[in-house]
Amino acid sequence: MAKNAFYAQSGGVTAVINASACGVIQTARKHKDKIGNVLAGRNGIIGALVEDLIDTSAESDDDIAALRHTPAGAFGSCRYKLKSLEANQAEYERLIEIFKAHNIGYFFYNGGGDSADTCYKVSQLSEKLGYPVQAIHVPKTIDNDLPMTDNCPGFGSVAKYIATSTLEASLDVRSMSKTSTKVFVIEVMGRHAGWIAAAGALVADHGIPVITLFPEIEFDQEKFLAAVKANVDRYDYCTIVVSEGCHWPDGKFLAEQGSRDAFGHAQLGGAAPVVANIVKQALGYKFHWAVADYLQRSARHIASRSDVEQAYALGQSAVQLALAGHNSVMPTVVRKSSRPYRWEIGHVSLAEVANVEKFMPRDFITADGFSITAPCKEYLYPLIEGEDYPPFENGLPKYVTLAGKSVPKRLPEFVLKKG
Amino acid sequence: MAKNAFYAQSGGVTAVINASACGVIQTARKHKDKIGNVLAGRNGIIGALVEDLIDTSAESDDDIAALRHTPAGAFGSCRYKLKSLEANQAEYERLIEIFKAHNIGYFFYNGGGDSADTCYKVSQLSEKLGYPVQAIHVPKTIDNDLPMTDNCPGFGSVAKYIATSTLEASLDVRSMSKTSTKVFVIEVMGRHAGWIAAAGALVADHGIPVITLFPEIEFDQEKFLAAVKANVDRYDYCTIVVSEGCHWPDGKFLAEQGSRDAFGHAQLGGAAPVVANIVKQALGYKFHWAVADYLQRSARHIASRSDVEQAYALGQSAVQLALAGHNSVMPTVVRKSSRPYRWEIGHVSLAEVANVEKFMPRDFITADGFSITAPCKEYLYPLIEGEDYPPFENGLPKYVTLAGKSVPKRLPEFVLKKG
Question: Does B218 lie at the interface with A, CB-CB under 8 angstroms?
Answer without folding.
Answer: no
